[in-house]
Structure prediction request, 405 residues.
Amino acid sequence: MAVGLGPLPDFFSVRGVRLGIASAGIKKPGRKDIVVFELAEGSRVAGIFTRNQFCAAPVTVTRQHLSQAAPRYLLINTGNANAGTGRQGLTDAETCCQALATAAGVADAAVLPFSTGVIGEPLPVAKITGALPAALEGLAGQRWAEAAEGIMTTDTLPKGASRQLMLGDETVTISGISKGAGMIRPNMATMLGFIATDAKVEPALLQALVSELGEASFNRITIDGDTSTNDACILIATGQSDAPEIDSESPYLADFRAALNDVFMTLAHAIVRDGEGATKFVTIEVSGAGTQQEALDVAYTVAHSPLVKTALFASDPNWGRILAAVGRAGVPDLDLDTIEIHLDDVCLVRQGGRAEDYSEARGKAVMSQQEITIRIDLKRGDVHERVWTCDFSHDYVTINAEYRT
Prediction:
């Protein structure tokens, strides 16, 4: 039921990255549920992670390992989140890292673990470690599409993006995959994103880029307002391209940032397009705000309103629900006579009430589209923000009601 989400692209291999995929049978026998990234020696890795205080054990371990060693491997499992598992969860995550490290001949801290799936269940360590030989044996550069499938949970389609650009006379590649369809309101800095490039990127800049671009993409999407325990977005730079190193003064930084931003946005939007039960892809634009926070408060209040989201599913231009959400967003001293609310180019609200030129037929026509923009102009400043969301359908309730069955 994914909205406007087509097949995976033809991925460009990233020099210095090999991927292995295996089946551990964590939740379903025969399902690909283990993905291993092998990174060339000297690769640089930066990340942003969930701010949920009940963060999963692999998030804690990954943060620790990033501070201890240069990463050489990523180990991802689906079917089990290893969250809400206490000290045993930390031990289990470390055990899996040790098994991969021993098999690959690297330090334990050179392995970064990631998990996604059911919260509160013990990690099936024996199944995961038992699948590692097959994942390592199958390591290859052109397995991005299989990896995109291997990290899925309730996703209906795999998600990926791949770009190439010229930096001087040299080609640089950026490829990435993401997963997520429910329990989505990333608050980082159950979604996962892995983006790799063969460019050489100065370490501090790499962290700045994943923070900046993650904030504008993955941190601007929401399915249901629930921040997962396991959110992580990882940016890898292997440095295997012959292009000059990119730092904050590089003449190539603008072009590289633009291409990288395109990959981040594509992967983030794909999560919304594949939201659990989604039938609409909705952009919420708030302009004329006095501060970024009030713009986001308005955007997220509208995006999280069950009444707005169910009206979207019904293609019902019930503009009063949007107006009510704006009014309860907590922005002080709103001038109701100046605010305008549009569906695409159809004005719903002007001067504190229904716009004189609005008609139900015009509103219905927009709401019947698969892709809709709700534009809210507060007319109190010059700050502009965008958030992307989807509707709530019967299927969302069914999927989550039956998630563990």
Notes: The chain has a mean pLDDT of 94. The radius of gyration is 22 Å.
